[in-house]
Amino acid sequence: MQKNASVQHTQFEELLQKVHAVGKETIANHASDVDEKARFPQESIEALKSLNLMSAYVPVEYGGMGLDIEQVGKICHILGHYCGSTAMIFAMHKIQVACVVHHCLTVEYFKNFAKRLVSEQLLIASATTEIGIGGDLLSSFCCVEAHDNEFDLTKKAPVISYGEYADALLITARRSADAAKSDQVGVLLNKDQYSLEPISDWDTLGFRGTCSSGFVVTGKADIEQIMPIPFTDALSQTMHPYSHVVWASLWSGIAASAVGKARSYVKNAVRKNPTAPPISSIRLGEVDTALTTMKNNVAASTKEYADLLNANNPDAFSNFSFATRINNLKISSSQLLIDIVGKSMMICGIASYRNQSELSLARHIRDAYGASLMVNNDRIMMHNSTLVLMHKE
Ligand SMILES: Cc1cc2nc3c(=O)[nH]c(=O)nc-3n(C[C@H](O)[C@H](O)[C@H](O)COP(=O)(O)OP(=O)(O)OC[C@H]3O[C@@H](n4cnc5c(N)ncnc54)[C@H](O)[C@@H]3O)c2cc1C
Questions:
Q1: Nearest CA to ligand 1 atom 5
Q2: Is 126 in the pocket of ligand 1 (CB under 6 A)?
Q3: How many angstroms separate the CA atoms of 150 and 10, rounded?
């Protein structure tokens, strides 16, 4: 399993300043329009590409920045401040990049793909969810049908974020037509190797800019494009922990943005009447405590995952308590996000309820509700209840 070494501290701090700059100058300016029209945040993704961020997790030897998971999490957090959809797209792309980087760089096709990721700043989408399977990542109906050195694949995918805008697609499928539902592989197809037939649109409450419509995916590719390890290993070592870390990181950015608006509301009220602090100042202290808890949870889980990656021991990921803690990160972060944005709305009052207001939290609260549904918290909780029973002190 390949892992990245962290880049120099000062170099990384400079990069974060640049991310803030494109956040303020580009991403924030388009966030409302992206949300209103449920359109792909083209300008924002272009701005991230201009900083070579699509390949930030690709190792230096392949031309990437070689950032580690803690550094990627920090970028996701910053992006969450400016636009939840842009941050989600970046995070979801990074999950697929991590699968390639951690598990596939022994294969020539994937080595070349990593180099193209750098030179062309490719965007990778994923099709794990399947009609009839729902959010159960460990099962597939569709299968790889191999003949000679090629395979065919057809998948009915109800949700593929930015599917129409991606340059490549990572798809889960059964290993063969006679394989069990759980005997899965991951395959990485280039845009010219698959077609997308639309089956559902994406007119949703939140995360509207992710453009997560449904498609029937039909593809044909070379056998070499099948990931060289069973998908279940890629899931436990990368997709599962990496997803929850980068998602929770960006959600903490959305939450911090909401608290920032609440703080400016209270500051304004204090300025108007310095002798009598408003009741909302207590609420601000309260919501700040919740935000600190959320950030601490993210930092602890990210550090734990980073340490496991650094230990370079794939067996460590089969540890039940690690999986449970990562699941807890997802459940608690998605719940805290709703709580924090809701509390911030109580502070800002009607100004946060308006769509056109400096203090509007309408997009934040709508995005917040998506977090518990993407891999449903109840599904995760059910899984955790089994893991907790098996856990020995
Ligand atoms: C913004 C967003 C972007 C997304 N992007 C992508 C993407 O790019 N690619 C992709 O493949 N998917 C994507 N998804 C889909 C996501 O990852 C989930 O797979 C999907 O949301 C699950 O859909 P569901 O609610 O219909 O299914 P389910 O997870 O099946 O949930 C439906 C209901 O059944 C219950 N349920 C089902 N099974 C169990 C169980 N075993 N234990 C307990 N409860 C259970 C749930 O609690 C829930 O009430 C995205 C989702 C969102 C919200």
A1: 161
A2: yes
A3: 46
Cβ(207) to ligand 1 under 6 A?
yes
Nearest atom within ligand 1 for CA of residue 381: 43
92 C-alpha to ligand 1 centroid (Å): 15
314 in Cβ contact with 237 (< 8 Å): yes
Q: If you average pLDDT over residues 263-280, what whole number do you get?
A: 92
Mean pLDDT, to the nearest integer, of 312-321? 82
Residue 263 Cα to ligand 1 midpoint, Å, equals 34
140 lines ligand 1 (CB under 6 A): no
How high is the pLDDT of residue 4? 65
Q: What are the tens digits of pLDDT across the range 164-177?
A: 999 999 999 999 99
Which residue ranges form the domains of the chain, and what is each CATH number? 9-122 (1.10.540.10), 126-225 (2.40.110.10), 231-390 (1.20.140.10)
Here the tokens at position 219 are 């593809």
Angle value at C-alpha 113, between 107 and 117, nearest 5 degrees = 145
- From the CB of 20, is ligand 1 less than 6 Å away? no
pLDDT for res 7? 67
pTM score: 0.96
Q: At 1, which helix (H) or strand (E)?
A: none
Measured between alpha carbons, how far is 172 from 239 in angstroms, rounded to an integer? 12
> What is the average per-residue pLDDT within 258-267?
97
DSSP 77: H
